[in-house]
């Protein structure tokens, strides 16, 4: 509803009350949407203006231990091994772990699991592991039971953030800004919501003879989307709460409660398999890919053996050794060159077949072909320095243990699907294709998509949330 120059919104806990958010007389719908993009609402009855008393706004004790906890049980019924299934080249749980680490607001980051493979992935992304007990690993176990067990075993934790592994579009700024509502504004619980514009109707059971009725609209005065604020719904991305609320009240949402509103494009929740391809496209555009700025990536190093080729050597009747190169991969290289990116192909002095292809590769791809030794970094760091670049400006594609240092350093890095685990753990992107079977083309498309995304962000390009 509207009252004068204010916009009113209601949040139901145990009773209704309103908070007034000032809006200037000349404000447009777009400016109001931007102004209300991150509104918080107090649920402390008696503080109906949404503000805490001055004496309660004092900065919270900085020494409180803030922990992030991601629940990742191994027995997913909908999608087997869902929590570590690759989504856009990264294990699903890796997306939220990267956001949590880069937010730099947590004193510790944990994954609660009962599964060995999930434990390995969690540790490779920088998390500690809480091996949950069988009692809280059942299909019937609730999140609250699992979180309570963690808090009981880790009494030093004061504030806990339960992050959902199935929310891959979570960004560090979401977590940072939400935590400030607890540490700076004195709330006890903060959870994420998204604004939905959906008209709801009463469900009618078959054979009941009842008629349905509208739950949140008057059909005689059906509002246009742009004239309706919509409703706030939990999107499940995260739930911040204090230990006191968990231990004493047995609640994730209790005490002084506030919500943190996330834009729809960041509200991706994977529950059923059909969501996976849709989520993958959303993540590629709106996911958090780390601190590196993809738009400045200007140089790519790519191994020939195992990336551009499948690593196999064919022998002819006459004794000639042959390797094959996929045309999709060479077209991917040309796509990068078309965007003014230099691509350097790497051959090893331990692989004479690939080295013998140097001249032909250079002619076919238009790339410089460079021979590297056992430690590629020793040879490549000189090239990076000569071109006056930082490693964040470099993309690197490798496929084995000698590439690990370069994979870690590069602003963007990738390995084929069939690379060994040591290389996969070091890379920022794992291709869905194997070496010599389109992996280079896939990584090229990934680089260009991130470049397009960065340009869109620079231009403050956003979806019209009213038509999302």
UniProtKB/TrEMBL annotation:
Taxonomy, superkingdom = Eukaryota
Its catalytic activity? an N-acylneuraminate + CTP = a CMP-N-acyl-beta-neuraminate + diphosphate
Q: What Gene3D superfamilies does the entry give? A: HAD superfamily/HAD-like, Spore Coat Polysaccharide Biosynthesis Protein SpsA, Chain A
Please provide, alphabetically and separated by semicolons, the GO molecular function terms listed in this UniProt record. N-acylneuraminate cytidylyltransferase activity
What is this protein's record name?
N-acylneuraminate cytidylyltransferase
Quote the Pfam families the UniProt record gives: CTP_transf_3 (PF02348)
Could you tell me which species this protein originates from? Etheostoma spectabile (orangethroat darter)
Pathway field of the UniProt record reads: Amino-sugar metabolism; N-acetylneuraminate metabolism
Q: Which CDD domains match?
A: CMP-NeuAc_Synthase
Q: Which family does it belong to?
A: Belongs to the CMP-NeuNAc synthase family.
Provide the E.C. number(s) assigned to this enzyme: 2.7.7.43
Q: Which UniProt keywords apply?
A: Nucleotidyltransferase, Transferase
PANTHER family from the UniProt entry: HAD SUPERFAMILY MEMBERS CMAS AND KDSC, N-ACYLNEURAMINATE CYTIDYLYLTRANSFERASE
Q: What's a BP term from Gene Ontology annotated to this protein?
A: N-acetylneuraminate metabolic process
- Secretion signal span: none
